[in-house]
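YM 10:42: D-aminopeptidase sequence, as discussed on the call
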Amino acid sequence: MTLRKGGGNTGVTAILPGSDIFKQKMLASGQVINGFGKTTCLVQINELGALETPILMTNTLAVGTCWTALTRYMLDRNPEIGLTTGTVNPVVMECNDGDLNDIRSLPVKESDALTVLALAEGNPPLLEGNVGAGTGMRCLGFKGGIGSASRLLELGGKK
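YM 10:58: structure's back
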């Protein structure tokens, strides 16, 4: 979801790595390369080697907002969390878009993150270009972002 209103130039991106990831945790690890790594739950991922939520990406000052939204999302889908199982560890990653976004206006709301998660459940086409998290990023003075083609992965012989 891309948010461009007022001085806002930001967004939220969701990655859903499975339909029931809390019950069928995914093997995972994390590494911060050339950045500050303002992420949530990366320590637990590295300790346990497992991912148990979708991943949200957003701007630096919206990490807490997206964490709360992702927690609500997981609690709604898994009523056993915190009752008969442990708690959940929502993964939110950040990108600083403060130069091209009015980051102080806190434009990302919980409803934006929940909307992105709902849209991702419908398996929409991958949007390319200046969209979602990273919309307002700069890299070395140029317009930058997360990008849809920044990494090529091979899994089980498939790209």
